[in-house]
Amino acid sequence: MSEVLEVIEENATQYLTFLLGGEEHAVDVLRVQEIRSYENATKMPHTPNYVRGIINLRGSVVPIIDLRAKFDLDAEFNFQTVTVLVKVFRAGKERTIGLVVDSVSEVYEILDEDMQPAPEMGGAISNDFVKSLATIDDRLVIILDIDSLINEGVLEQLDGVEVRD
Amino acid sequence: MSIDISQFQEIFIEESYESLDVMEAGLLTLDVGEPDSEVINNIFRAAHSIKGGAGTFGFEEIAAFTHVQESLLEAVRSKSRGVSAELIDTLLQCVDCVRSMLEANRTDAEIDADRVLALTSQLERYQSQDSESNEVVPEATADERQEQPLDDQTGGWKVVFKPYPDILATGNDPYRVIRELKRLGECQVEVSTENLPDLEELDPEKLYLSWTVELDGSCEESEIREIFEWLEDDCDLEIQRLVDPVEGEQVSDDFSVPAKVPVVEVGKKPVDNVFQRDVEDIGIASVESSSIRVDTEKIEHLINLVGELVITQSAISQYSANLTEHVHLQAGLQQLASNVHELQEQSMRIRMLPIDFVFQRLPRLIRDLSNTLKKEVQFVLKGKETEVDKTVLEKISDPLVHIVRNALDHGIESPQERIEQGKSEKAALEISAKHEGGNIVISISDDGRGLDLPSILTKAQERGIVEEGDVLTDSQIEELIFYPGFSTAREVSDVSGRGVGLDVVKQNIKSLGGDVSVTSSLGEGTEFRIKLPLTMAILDGQLVQVGGEVFVLPMMNIEKSVQVRDSDVNVLPNGQMVYRFDDEYVPILDLDQFFSDSLSPARRPEGILVLIDTGKLAAILVDDVLSQQQVVIRSLEANFRRIETLAGATILGDGAVALILDANELVQVAHNLQGINNEPLRKVS
Q1: pLDDT tens, residue by residue, B102-118
Q2: Contact (Cβ atoms closer than 8 angstroms) between residue B602 and residue B571
Q3: Which terminal CB of chain A, N or C, has fewer other CB atoms within 10 Å?
Q4: What share of residues in chain B are helix, strand, coil (percent, to 5)?
């Protein structure tokens, strides 16, 4: 085993990367609870289309957010489609949420100094959800800030959804 | 070893609240003049445990304040002073004051020092009265004689205190004990080092010393024992009266000396009780030791796990249903099913508490209110032992208090008015709780003036709740008092009657999945009935299919389910469909259409209509009605957020998630769609 163990640099963080519309995105690996192949979720009424529904995760009810739909990307479902279950923090409370992505790729260790702030950019993903950018083997990796993605990007909007009453 | 005292402080605060409730309840049953000694003992014990805890956990102000109360109570207990109505009043105020002190500690707020000071001086005034009048008070009832010979001895005490080696790990400090003993009088302390091991064997976290203290002065044995109250399980303790040199006679007493002449071993019984012979005390001690305090989170977790087990068990039963040739397997599975069912029921019962926890607030409320309102009320509480889920219990308190206030304020007449009406001066108020089916029903009934239906109707018309010319049945008029902005009080009083109230009560109860109704007859009285589900964690559910998904409807709200017949459905000009039920038209909510946010015009319904009654009626259109089963309610909020019209989610036998519909909100939605919200009770006929 010992040759597999790598020494983690003090100022480095490990990230899980996954593909969304061809681009590589990353989240802090410590936030990842598990990865499971995509399964159909129970649809929830009165939620935006990127909320795929809820699933039973060993007895607790977990909502599933399709990041592709959230970012206006094509959402294909094939054998590579996975749900990444992540822990997010909202108002000091830990919650578990599933993120649907095209496929997971790898776990990278990224040094703090290799990360740079995201430039101002337009497009579907507002900069608020991008923590920083990093280059790995000449490829761009977009490091997502899942807390603000979920809080401002998903739950916030959901809270704004008015139900007819 | 450092101990985080804050967690104990929380427990202390919680326990003190309970003790305060006990004190309050006791004080309220106390008769002026001839107090029941059991009741006084209860009050005293409660005050004493607050004081003890407050001292230990560093709540100096509370300890000092309760000490004054305790000494006064001690005087009452030993019958050296009587009980007057003012004394009870003062003590009740003290209870409130301690409560506010605890609250202040909990919220880090300032303690209202003036209030404490005022009450303290009031208490001290009582005590100084005592010392003046002490000689006059007749001495020695049978109760007292037993303590008397012990108390006034001057021979002093010998206390042998041998702590167990690991006493330090319990956070107790022997030095504190010696210090406390010194406060009681002159002390000669001898320390024994005979058990001290050699240095290399010495464990610095253990205590090897023991002490012999000779104590002068006229303190009581109970005072000494009090010091050791928290240590009794962690030491060997002997308390011995020193032989009085003058009389040269060993003081013994039938009560203080069982078998073992003058040494009294401290067992595990509460210290106070050693010299008390009340059988009832022993009863209380055993009650206390037979219950434990458990974090509700642990129980939630257990119940969730049991819920899982139920799901797993039903899944296994499903998978193995066709393995009929394995007789033993089938028998085992059946056994498992019944065991799991039993386990589920029992674990749900852990959360059940007697409704008395809420009821015990009422006597005080009724007493204070009837004083303020100058009304005389004889009240009865029935079914105190009726058990109900803790969550329900916590939320029912405010609505209940509100209704009781209403009854006192509006329902019950002044004594004068009652006499004029030919009723007895004292009004009767009965509050009862009982189980009825899967529900708990709380009824609050008075023999007051009853609801004045014509004036309610007039008022409702004035406020535009009902349109003029509408014909309402009596029960519909009674129902009007639950509408927002409705208050029948002619004058707004500070007790109740600001027009917010009964509608909020109704809302709160509905949010618990229950309902409240009222019946009344003019001049004879009013009865409020609150109906609540026994538990909020498990629901008897009807599974229904809507647009490919399975939803759960609470059985308790389902009136009936019918196949849609064209002839019973009408469409209003705005497209809203209504269903004819008896002589009422109820709005139909097409769930599929509602959930898919579709704005397509109403189609002729196909499927099954489920008639839901939550006080208001609505018919829910679903594609199919499936099986009925008990479901464990899981919150959506835990990982997500609340969604209107959904009460939560559950996991079915096959592991799939199904959403639980909120019947109240669905009915609300159905009515709003129909646009008759402002005139909900109008009969369409």
Answers
A1: 888 877 777 778 888 88
A2: yes
A3: N
A4: 45, 20, 35
